[in-house]
Every structure is written in C-alpha cells, then in structure tokens.
Design goal:
By secondary structure, the protein is an alpha/beta fold. It contains 22 helices and 21 strands.
Length: 527
C-alpha cells in the first residue's frame, strides 16, 4: 500500500489533516505526519526577518500590534532537517495541509524538497482551495475542497501505478507541455458519521521546532491536555471576509452545514479520554449553538459520558435561555461571541452579517449570569469604517455586561483571497476628512472599554475630542493598569506564601485594597 507523508505548518492541532490520516489508515495505507513549527502570536516589532506575507494581525490587550500564525521564520537548519527526515521516511506522496497565511513558506519548503527528491507533492487545505492556480506554480497537484475521497483515490492510484488525471477535486500538471487538468469537486460528504475518528495516535508523528526533530505527536501535551473537535462542517452564515462564503460558492446548491450525530461526537471523546489524559475540550465548530434538538441530546449525553469542561462558539440568533442553561449544565465553562462591529451599517453592508446588538448584550448577560466566562471577537482596522461606525462599536462594548472580555485583544481585518469582501473594498470609496476613523486611537478605547478604571461615558467623550484622538500614544498611557495587572500576575507566582503572615494586617489589607481599586473586582485576587 502507499505511504503518504502529511506536512502541516504552524498548526499542531491540524484537525483536517488528522481526519485525512485516519481515512487513509482505514483504507490500509501507511501514514506519517510532520508538524513543522508551532503557531505563535508575537509582537509585530519583534519580527526581525521580513515575511512574504503578514495576512493575520491583531492588537493585544496592552495595545501592541501583533502578528499571528507565521511569526517565527524558518531557519536553514530546520529546512535541512525537514528534507533529511522526508528522505529517511521515503514516502510515495508528500501532502501539505495549508492555510492562506502559510502558502509562501510552503512554496520555499516545496522547492527545497523538489530540488532533492522526486516524490510528488500535493497541496490541500483552505489556502490552496482558494488559490489553486498560485499553488500549482509550486507543487505538482492541488486538492480543492474536502479531501477525504481525493486522497484515498490518489493513494490507490499511486499504489497501482495508475493515472490521477481524472480524480475529482484534483488540479494538476501534465508532462510534455500539455495543459494542466482541473477536475471539479465531488459532492460534499453528507453523512459525517461514515468517517472514522481523527487520528491522535503518537505513531509516525514528528515535530520540527527550534532546530530539532521530536519523534512524537505534540497536540495533546502542547495544548495543555486540551482536545479539539468539531461536530459540524460548514457555517450557516456567509460573512464576506470568511472562507466559508467562498466554500459555499464552490459547493453551490449543497447544504452549507452538516453535523455528526451525538453518538459519533461523544464516542470520539470517550475514545480519546481512554488514550489521552484530557482535562478539557474545545469545540471548533464555526457556530456550535445551532439545532436545539441536537443540543438537547448532546448536553444529556456529554454530561453523563464525558463530563469535562468545554469551550464553544455561540451565536445569539435562535439561542434560547433554556439552551444556554443546558449547555452550562453540561460543562460549558467558556464561550465566545463574535460581535465584530457595533455598527449596523458595517455588519450588514460590508460584512454581510445579521446581528442585533440587543441580542448580543442579552446573550452575554445570560451567559455571565450562568457563571460562564465570556469572550467577544471584534474586527478593527476596516478601511471602510467611519468615525461613527467606530463609535457605535465602542458603545456596544461599553454596554456589554461586566465580565465579558475581549478575546485576547482585537483582530485587524484580514483580507483573504477569493473572499467577497475584496470586491466590496475595491468598489467602495474610503471615508476621508473628519468622517475617517483613527483606528489606532479607537483600538485603545476598545481595550479600555472592558477595564473597570475607565467609565464608559468618559470614553465616549474622549472619542469626540479630535485633538485627543489624533494622539493615540497619549491614549495608550491610560492602559497602565492593564500593564500593571500583567506584571502582578507574573510576579504573584513568586510572592512567598508566608507574606500574609509576616506583614502587619493593616499593610496587607491596604495592599489588597489598592490592588482591587486598580484592577477591579473582576480580576484574580489573593497574592
């Protein structure tokens, strides 16, 4: 049987790759996996080697610009280690699983491989699906869309020495100067239960990081005993900036969302717990809180058979109070709400979203009332936003209940290939003059809106002071309590446990009172 080597960049969770691995193993093929470098978020100022692409940037809670996903450059040693490991494993096929932000790095690694080895290279994942022509310039084959059927057909063709020109989903080159072939995708998998569980076994897994090769699967240990899983494929919405909208166009007329049965989802988690010391679960569904009937059965089964705390992404549309209570009772300790913008104009005309601010606020309030930790996603640095749009977003953040937090900071608008927002940005005039938004200043106000030391009314007044909004560096100084909190959180680990006993009670109480005034009652206490 064929030996397929999967290679993923900056993605040790790699859920799609793990699914493909299990499908190939079920068909009798040998599979190896190389996890090439870790996902990291670092300060943009610390990225010293210029990258070909910086498609995903953000702002952290301290107001600093960050770079996500491909912030660590690849060293010459790591490139050499990769080629040597592939030569040692001697696969019949090398399969890259890629996102848009990793295509440039993948092209460099593919050139290294093809300069030294004759093994065919295929690219798959959302990046090559959105940019197949660009991808085909670097590799031999591209898989567009869902790859389970294509990778099995390709492995069988390699095993039998047959041509792969007619395999659905594949685009590829022909020899002798013949034009490339571009096969349409096969229909989507309707019954996800027919697929085996993800491959989380340690056999045949390798990690390349920090100029060394580690022969083990990094996923469970590196994610602090966290297990990632998805009960669905697809999204019920079609946001203009998201790849799901592009996928819906690729698979036009087919169901945008398919869901595994509760039995299949719970069965995978029970099987994973039998092998790995998991202590929490992340459901990576684009929207987990859909289909009330499914959720009712899931909550009952999950609580009885799994019983671990979990995180999921929820959307206020169609989300009832009883459903939230069920999810919380089943173990939902954390939830994320995607609000993206507080401006109805931006949401509907630019992002293609239908979200009511009252429903967002009510959902956040209910989740916090049930004892869940709530994070919210906000997109900033949209060049089409006006000053009023940003002020609407600021007001929504102010109106959120105490306890709702920004999800690690803010996400700058990322414009990915083949998404509909490209046309909107090209066809819409940018606001100018007083109407234009100063995102650098508003980003600071957004961050301050979730801090106890910054009253909402004062932030709104600040947003109307042009001289102040023209000086974001001055606004950033107001984040000093956040910086102090970060320092205290770090130092607290080293604060001797006998300090409370040694310090005079009035001094200890004064220190705690000062900390509470500075950091607010929502922050961890107890030095």
């Amino acid at each position: 049987m064929s030996h397929v080597l999967f290679l993923t960049l900056y993605d040790q969770g790699a859920m799609g790759l793990r699914q493909l691995s299990s499908v190939l193993k079920a068909d009798g093929h040998r599979v190896s996996v190389i996890y090439f470098k870790k996902y990291r978020t670092v300060l943009k100022s610390s990225v010293q080697t210029p990258l070909d692409e910086m498609l995903h940037e953000g702002v952290d809670l301290l107001g600093r610009d960050t770079v996500m996903s491909i912030s660590a450059p690849v060293s010459e040693t790591e490139r050499r280690l990769l080629v040597n490991l592939i030569r040692e494993l001697a696969p019949n096929l090398i399969a890259f699983s890629l996102r848009s932000v990793t295509l440039a790095v993948a092209a460099t690694l593919t050139r290294d491989i093809k300069a030294r080895l004759r093994t065919p290279v295929i690219w798959g994942g959302i990046g090559p699906t959105l940019e197949p022509d660009r991808s085909l310039q670097a590799c031999d084959l591209v898989c567009r869309g869902e790859g389970e059927g294509a990778i099995v057909d390709l492995a069988r063709a390699l095993d039998r020495g047959e041509s792969w020109d007619g395999i659905p989903n594949l685009w590829g080159k022909r020899g002798g100067g013949c034009p490339a072939f571009r096969n349409p995708p096969r229909p989507l998998f309707r019954v996800l239960d027919a697929l085996p569980y993800m491959d989380t076994s340690p056999q045949g897994k390798y990690t390349i990081e920090n100029d060394v090769v580690i022969r083990d699967d990094p996923a469970i240990s590196n994610f602090e005993l966290l297990y990632e899983i998805s009960s669905t494929r697809g999204c019920p919405f079609a946001c203009t900036y998201c790849c799901n909208e592009a996928l819906q166009r690729l698979y036009e007329g087919q169901p945008p969302v398919r869901r595994r049965s509760v039995d299949h989802v719970v069965g995978e988690l029970v099987a994973a717990r039998a092998v790995h010391p998991i202590n929490r679960v992340n459901f990576q569904d684009d929207v987990f809180s859909i289909d009330r009937k499914w959720l009712t059965e899931f909550c009952e089964r999950y609580k009885q058979e799994v019983g671990l705390p979990f995180w999921c992404y929820v959307h206020p549309q169609g989300l009832h109070t009883e459903t939230l209570a069920m999810l919380r009772d089943a173990g939902m300790h954390w939830a994320t709400l995607g609000i993206q913008s507080g401006s109805r104009r931006v949401l509907e005309q630019i992002y293609g979203r239908r979200s009511q601010r009252e429903a967002i606020i009510d959902t956040a309030r209910q989740l916090i009332g049930l004892g869940a930790d709530v994070n919210v996603d906000v997109i900033t640095n949209n060049p089409l936003e006006t000053d009023q749009d940003c002020r609407d977003t600021l007001q929504l953040l102010i109106d959120l209940p105490c306890g709702a937090r920004l999800n690690g900071g803010l996400s700058k608008l990322s414009v990915f290939p083949a998404t509909r927002i490209i046309g909107i940005l090209n066809d819409t005039a940018r606001p100018t003059g007083p109407a234009a938004a100063n995102h650098e200043a508003y980003n600071v106000l957004y961050l301050l809106s979730r801090q106890p030391h910054a009253p909402g009314k004062r932030l709104v007044t600040m947003s109307r002071r042009r001289w102040l909004m023209a000086r974001p560096a001055l606004l950033r100084t107001l984040l000093w309590p956040v910086r102090l909190r970060a320092a205290l959180t770090h130092v607290r680990r080293f604060f001797p446990p006998w300090a409370k006993r040694r310090l005079p009670p009035p001094l200890w109480n004064a220190m705690r009172s000062m900390k509470k005034r500075l950091l607010g009652p929502r922050q961890p206490t107890g030095w």
